[in-house]
Amino acid sequence: MAIFKDHNINVKQLLGFIPEALLANLSLTTKIDHYAKVLHGNKLFYLLLYGILDNDRLSQRTLEDTFNDSVFKILFNLDEGEKVRRSSISERLSKVDPDYFRQIYEYIYERFSASYTLTERKQYNLIRIDSTIVSETAGKLTEGIVNPGSSKKAVKYSLAFDGILPGHAHVFTSPKYGNEDNALPEVVMAHVKKEPGHQNIYVLDRGLQSTRTMKAFSDGEVTFICRAKENRKFELMESLIAEEKDMDMGESILLRDCIVRLYTGIPITNKRGNKHYREQLVDRFFRLVIVKSKAEDGKEYWLLTNEFNLSAKEIAQAYRRRWDIEVFFRFLKQELNASHLVSLNKNGLQVILYMTLITSMLVLIYKKGNALGYKTSKRRFAMEVRDLAIALIVLQCGGDPGLFFKT
């Protein structure tokens, strides 16, 4: 049943991508339901899915109200007599096995990404890697990242985004991951392990600056494009421009395209036990592309990569598409409550992140299939979920939903 006649895909079809058999099987293999009296794995899954869609500000209190709501119980075929308290939800999130939700998340991603066309697959081999920080209500976190100049603890969500869907996710709470040079390589390498034989290009912003990491990527045949700090020190090996002159590339101007070697700091401990770093050239060639934006009043972008086959224009265009992940982060925070921490321990944070990404994938496929914007997709998706619940209520009362939803 779809209430929007011009839509190619509806909510009922999308919810069908989450088979009950999968949830039941995972309940056995992950032992998620051991010692759970009411909030079994499938019920917690549906509660979080519906709660994220139905609430502008998700919290343990709103989840309590959602579970105890008759509409929610009818929609997901739950017993009307079952009740939960906020404290039970809090305890369950802190102890439940996140692997149950991770496996559902990966299953749905694989199902949806398998429907990409050959053209789309080539397009979506460009993997955007980035992080976002969430610090709202994070004062009571047992472990968290503290940003410079702030005493408030925060959580870092780092993702791999293929242009349509998030293909990998990680929650960081350890202080050392406040440095993106520690967080982002872990996400890249975890994504690489999931896709053996891949031909992905990983696009990162200025969070990645470590020459040692760039060398490790090259040694591991991981192709990357990242933005370097302007005026970074390098040794010029060869210019890839026949004539040393500016070249118009449409939205930008090419200032330099060359093969370089980069410096790294080698730790040295002196006789007094003090550590300092000695500059040393890394035994690897990289490519430096410098472009000047026409739209941003001559702003320069220094792009480092180990990709030598693409043109300088294609390198610049690939980096420009990195912005897609920033738009996705904004969607998660503004439309799916990701800016508010529902749980204050890493276990619960992982569960909520996986559920938020599962919800986002359902909405994003709905968005793509119906050619809608982010806000419209989320609003209409939630409306269809509500109408499914109304239809079930009508049927349960012995009525005909077709009389209510005239098509």
Give the SSE map.
Blueprint: H1 11-15, H2 20-29, H3 41-54, H4 60-67, H5 70-75, H6 86-95, H7 98-113, H8 118-123, E1 126-134, E2 145-146, E3 153-161, E4 166-172, H9 180-194, E5 201-204, H10 211-219, E6 223-228, E7 234-239, E8 247-248, E9 252-269, E10 275-281, E11 286-293, E12 300-305, H11 312-320, H12 323-335, H13 346-370, H14 374-396, H15 401-404
Parallel strand pairs: 1-5, 5-6
Antiparallel strand pairs: 1-3, 2-3, 3-4, 6-12, 7-9, 8-9, 9-10, 9-11, 11-12
Main structural class? alpha+beta
Strand fraction: 15-25%
Helix content: 40-55%
Give the C-alpha Rg: 24 Å
Query: Could you list the spans in which at least 5 consecutive residues all have pLDDT below 50?
Result: none
What is the overall number of helices?
15
* Silhouette: globular
Distance between the termini: 9 Å
- N to C succession of SSEs: HHHHHHHHEEEEHEHEEEEEEEHHHHH
